[in-house]
């Protein structure tokens, strides 16, 4: 016979435990989806920055070797691609930070309500670190192109 004073709390039931574990895994899957989204932004930005820099350099070399007289249109197009790549990466980084902040808040709230076990914290994002390094590289490339200084001239 079960004593009514020792009844199992709804939060201690096996079904609640399983739901809690599934929710925890869902948070991890959502975090990984955000990482994949940032990786796609990195790929596109890297392509834009590298194509822009290459186009700029090709037109500069053609002008130096007197193959063409004016390289302004090619230079401007290359600079535009680099700027577009840097801006896209910056927007992607800001969105990723905002999304991860909201996800962490939601997870913390659910952990505080004891609906979720918060035992495994989100690891540092290597994708975010890579994106920030690429952003710095893109800004250096842009400065090099505009000011004709830096390691790429």
Quote the distance from N terminus to C terminus. 85 Å
Helical residues, percent: over 70%
- H/E topology pattern: HHH
Measured by DSSP, the beta-strand proportion falls in under 5%
Q: Output mean pLDDT.
A: 84
**Cα gyration radius (Å):** 25 Å
Q: Tally of extended strands?
A: 0
Poorly predicted parts: none
Classification by helices and strands: mainly alpha
Number of helices, counting only DSSP H or I runs of 4 residues or more = 3
Describe, in plain words, how this protein is organized in 3D.
By secondary structure, this protein is mostly helical. It has one domain (37-147). It has 3 helices and no strands. It has helices spanning 14-64, 72-112, 126-147. Helix 1 (14-64) packs antiparallel against helix 2 and helix 2 (72-112) runs antiparallel to helix 3 (126-147). It starts with 13 loop residues before the first helix and ends in a 6-residue tail after the last helix. The model has no long low-confidence stretch (mean pLDDT 84).
What would a concise description of this structure say?
The protein contains 3 helices and no strands.
Features:
DUF202, membrane, 75% helix, cell membrane, 3 helices, single chain, IM_YidH-like, 0% strand, rod-shaped, transmembrane helix, 153 residues, mainly alpha
Annotate the secondary structure layout.
Elements: H1 14-64, H2 72-112, H3 126-147
Helix pairs in contact: 1-2, 1-3, 2-3
């Amino acid at each position: 016979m079960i004593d009514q004073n020792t009844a199992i709390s709804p939060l201690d039931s096996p079904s609640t435990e399983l739901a809690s574990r599934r929710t925890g895994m869902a948070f991890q899957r959502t975090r990984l989806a955000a990482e994949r989204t940032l990786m796609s932004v990195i790929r596109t930005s890297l392509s834009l920055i590298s194509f822009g820099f290459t186009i700029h350099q090709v037109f500069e070399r053609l002008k130096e070797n007197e193959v063409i007289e004016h390289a302004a249109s090619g230079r401007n197009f290359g600079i535009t691609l680099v700027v577009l790549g840097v801006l896209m990466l910056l927007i992607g980084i800001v969105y990723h930070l905002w999304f991860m902040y909201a996800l962490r808040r939601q997870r913390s709230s659910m952990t505080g309500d004891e609906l979720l076990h918060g035992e495994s914290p989100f690891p540092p994002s290597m994708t975010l670190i890579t994106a920030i390094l690429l952003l710095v590289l893109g800004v250096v490339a842009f400065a090099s192109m505009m000011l004709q200084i830096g390691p790429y001239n």
